[in-house]
Here is the input.
Amino acid sequence: MPGTDDRRTVHLAVYDTLADWETGHATAWLARSGFEIRTVGPTTDPVTSIGGLRVLPDLALADLRPEDSALLILPGADLWDAGDELAPFAATARAFLDAGVPVAAICGATAGLAREGLLDDRPHTSAAPFYLAATGYKGGEHYVGADAVTDGDLITAGPTEPVAFAREVLGKLGAFEGRRLDAWYRLFHHSDEAAFEELNA
Here is the structure.
């Protein structure tokens, strides 16, 4: 299990073509809640997102250990469906889950987890059932048609649900809980003005 000092460090995977809009709510609100966000790349060389943002990773994937982290976040990216270049990130997700450290995957990263066999036996979601079926995985009967799904230490979501994805992440790490978490979601997903006062009460 991670040490006390490491429970406030969240690792965000970054790689070329990463979908930069998918994890912004999660990382921003974790950071505002006292978590440190560290980026993890294939190496420490710069990567470029779909939106053209250039990111210099804080550390290389080979140097990431589950015991140093509270959570690994895997964003979508075109590369998830373009070969095996990102397979080491899925293998790292397996190591995290085996160590009891949560993993949150959205969009194409869910296909990477499917190829790794991590969705064969647990409830999960993604962009659509046929998207994951194309990976040849064996978990189709466990697919859930929901905006985001948390099963134990694994969070999954589709590409159109960055707010629901963040809701599950924030709840999992205790950044927001109960009525405050609900208010956060209503504010950012439903533009509920009343939720702003609840969130900041």
In short: DSSP finds seven helices and nine strands in the chain. Residues 1-6 have pLDDT under 50 and may be disordered.
